[in-house]
Amino acid sequence: MKVLICGGGCAGPAVALLLVRLGHQVTIVERFDSLRASGAQIDLRAQGITAVKRMGLLPGIRKILVDEAGAAQVDGHGRVWGTVLANKSGKGAQGPTSEYEMMRGDLVRLLYDETKQDVEYIFGKSVTSFDQNGKKVDVRFSDGSRETYDLLVGADGQGSRIRKAFMPDNTDPYVHTGLHVAYWFVPRIKSDTNIRETYRSPGGRQIMRRSHNPTESQAYFILMDQDPSARSIHRASEKEQKEFWKQRFQGAGWQTDRFIQGMETTDNWYSAEIVQVRIDSWHQGRVVLLGDAACCPSPMSGMGTTNAFVGAYVLAGELSKSPDDLDVALKSYEDTLRPFIDETQKVPFRFVKLLMPQTSWAIKLLNWISWVVCSLKVPNLIMRFSSEDKGGWSLPVYPELKDQG
């Protein structure tokens, strides 16, 4: 088939890698002018690890891993109340820190290097509209050009324009959580270690610091604000976004002043509402959605990157099983993947909000709970005797994909 993929992040190139192995002609169109190899720290978990093994990507991923040894809870004086180390035994479940932590930009570059010889990349261009007649998809691009394809894959993130184009008007695909996040890079200082630190401040505020190389650390502000008007800030200018976060976190304690100062010079800024994407169908005719465009589980799940790779593997696998019947392949893709996605989207947001209290006494209580739980090594026991596979769902085996692991 002649396939067009919208989105040059992780999910799009991942499925492209498999489709070209099956003999398809693949083009990736990316609206940014160059490879968008930026972003914060991401990880792989559960069935996503199996997927990248079968795709033959694991050796390359091991070369780009970030050395994060674990996660700690700290107070305003930097005192550690509890630490959970990463489970790198190869047995049991991953903890707050995965064995496979990496920077999004490094993973994007790895996927690009693995696909650039066989996949056509077009930068600075986007799909503005499309029509389909059951046999082909006629695509119109932002530069006025048109092209016809056999399959259009929307892998263009949680704000997907492809998804918006085939959904009914005024449909809201998002589950709004009342949570918001901003992250950016700051210069690393001597006290920044390879243990991730999380600090809670009254007013439903949380700050996180993690370090990914010898010169930089990542700063995260997470805010609980149930007011729908707070969502609009993420559509404002970068200057307005930064002002919003400064005002909301001014005086929050710990290293807040350092992180706010770092906002001014960062080259890597991101501000977004934390949402899930839930829609009734991921495909329509010869158009199909993948990754966050189809089923963003939210950063709180820790499963976004895993969903992208598992989804890419299942989509390519189902296309390989039914090469002459696209309707059957896309329906089977959704039927096969849905149970796994349903599991990854079971995020206990009520519990998450309890971990972002409004008062100082509630924060002190959480710190003491963290100290007791970690002193008794409860997280270690849970990881050791838990299954890594999410929901007991097994990644299907597709002989046509020829396991590369």
TrEMBL record:
> Keyword Electron transport: yes or no?
no
- Taxonomy, superkingdom: Eukaryota
UniProt entry keywords in alphabetical sequence: FAD, Flavoprotein, Oxidoreductase, Signal
Which Gene3D superfamilies does this entry report, sorted A to Z?
D-Amino Acid Oxidase, subunit A, domain 2, FAD/NAD(P)-binding domain
GO-annotated molecular function: FAD binding; oxidoreductase activity
Q: Is this entry keyworded Cell membrane?
A: no
Classification via InterPro entries = FAD-bd, FAD/NAD-bd_sf, FAD_aromatic-hydroxylase
Query: Any idea where the FAD-binding domain is?
Result: 2-322
Q: Which residues form a coiled coil?
A: none
Any signal peptide, and if so, which residues? 1-16
Question: What name is this protein filed under?
Answer: FAD-binding domain-containing protein
What organism is this sequence from? Sarocladium strictum (Black bundle disease fungus)
What taxonomic classification does the UniProt entry list for its organism? Eukaryota, Fungi, Dikarya, Ascomycota, Pezizomycotina
